[in-house]
Design brief:
With 396 residues, the protein is of the alpha/beta class. The chain contains 15 helices and 17 strands. Bound molecules: adenosine monophosphate.
């Protein structure tokens, strides 16, 4: 369903509330990676270039105690935004009240204002995260228009996305939201074939919804990472000390029966005696020996996965192939990332923090068609779920 986009709105002279995703890594007031701020720039720039007043709302981390507030203020983010936009940005250290209202009323066309972390409201009964009706209504009253550009929180119904949307006559998607919906939506609903999904990471339980939704849409589903060994157990292979979800073995059997040879498992693995980079390790095919745990896919698995990828036209990748944080078990993940970067005639999509980190480490990010800014949100999208933040945006 096509959504109303920020460029459909007449923003001139309007107070435009924009929900952005400025949930960046931050330590001692220093921003680690500003990708999410950069990703929000086109929408902000569009609003101010067209004579609107941009009032930005975002959450940052989780606020559980009064002390969290000092660590998770959006002030450094507003400063970084000012550098990126090359213009002053007003920061208001409040999420409601006179100071905020006065600052908004004093804005000129083309001005940018960032209000304090929306989750400061969580200290008082989780008002933001539980979508308190009064809070959404109040925030909506501060603006004339609402644009939601925070794909990263679209899988949650919070006051700052769904709450505001439901108190406005219309809610539009920002350009980042539009891009996320386009690429993930096309991959799931209208992929170019062969469509290959690569799923890794620790747990089957986290990816089960994605596998079930993609079984009938994808041509191949490559499985790697810790979740592999629950499938190994379901096949009757021995798994040694590898990660396993025993309560998911039956489900894994069902998936294998349904998917047939669509499901591609690694034929060999790097196994180690301990969960440690320095533990003795070796490559084994099939059964994992007693006393060993599988921590990465092996070289034959890499080759077979590359073969599956070679003629793919759409690839979605979520989750590492092994414990890629440890150099001795990073090879599988890095090789798959490299193979993805080398595909020239395929739409390639990466979701999830670990796969994105691998893509950045390899320097292949520019060769990837779309790197999603939402981990949880992209997974839920791939599961075929309706995301409340997106559902609340007006249909065209
Ligand atoms: P997820 O958050 O589900 O995407 O899982 C990512 C985590 O899975 C990473 O921290 C990896 O270290 C971990 N992981 C990947 N493969 C394995 C494995 N074979 N055994 C244990 N942990 C793994």
């Amino acid at each position: 369903m096509a959504k109303l986009i920020v460029s459909d709105l007449d923003v001139k002279d309007k107070k435009v509330l924009i929900r952005v995703d400025f949930n960046v890594p931050i330590k001692d007031g220093v921003i680690g990676d500003d990708n999410r701020i950069v990703a929000a720039l086109p929408t902000i720039q569009y609003v101010i270039d067209n004579g609107g007043k941009a009032i930005l709302l975002s959450h940052l981390g989780r606020i559980k105690t009064e002390e969290d507030k000092a660590k998770l203020s959006l002030r450094p983010v507003a400063e970084r935004l000012s550098e990126l936009l090359k213009k002053p940005v007003t920061f208001v250290p409040a999420t409601r009240g006179q100071e905020l209202e006065d600052a908004i009323n004093n804005m000129n066309d083309g001005d940018v204002l960032v209000m304090e972390n929306t989750r400061f409201e969580d200290l008082d009964g989780k008002k933001e995260s539980k979508n308190d009706p009064e809070l959404g209504k109040y925030w909506a009253s501060l603006g004339d228009l609402f644009v939601n550009d925070a794909f990263g929180t679209a899988h949650r119904a919070h006051a700052s996305n769904v709450g505001i949307s439901s108190n406005m006559p219309q809610a539009a998607a920002g350009f980042l939201m539009e891009k996320e919906i386009k690429f993930l939506g096309d991959a799931v609903e209208n992929p170019r074939h062969p469509f290959v999904a690569i799923l890794g990471g620790a747990k089957v339980s986290d990816k089960i919804g994605v596998i079930s939704n993609l079984i009938n849409k994808a041509d191949r589903i490559i499985v790697g990472g810790g979740m592999t060994y629950t499938f190994y157990a379901a096949k009757g292979l021995s798994i040694g000390k590898s990660l396993v979800e025993t309560d998911k073995i039956d489900l894994a059997k069902q998936i294998m029966a349904e998917a047939g040879d669509k499901l591609v498992l690694p034929v060999d693995n790097v196994v180690a005696t301990e969960f440690s980079n320095d533990a003795p390790h070796k490559v084994v095919e099939g059964n994992i020996p007693d006393g060993y745990m599988a921590l990465d896919i092996g070289p034959k698995a890499v080759e077979s996965f590359k073969k599956v990828l070679a003629d793919a036209k759409t690839v979605v990748w979520n989750g590492p192939m092994g414990v890629f944080e440890m150099p001795n078990y990073a090879k599988g993940t890095l090789e798959i990332g490299k193979a993805l970067g080398e595909l020239t005639d395929a739409t390639t999509i990466i979701g999830g923090g670990d796969s994105t980190a691998a893509a950045n480490e390899l320097g292949i990010a520019p060769k990837i068609t779309h790197i999603s800014t939402g981990g949880g949100a992209s997974l839920e999208y791939l599961e075929g779920k309706e995301l409340p933040g997106i559902a609340a945006i007006t249909n065209k």
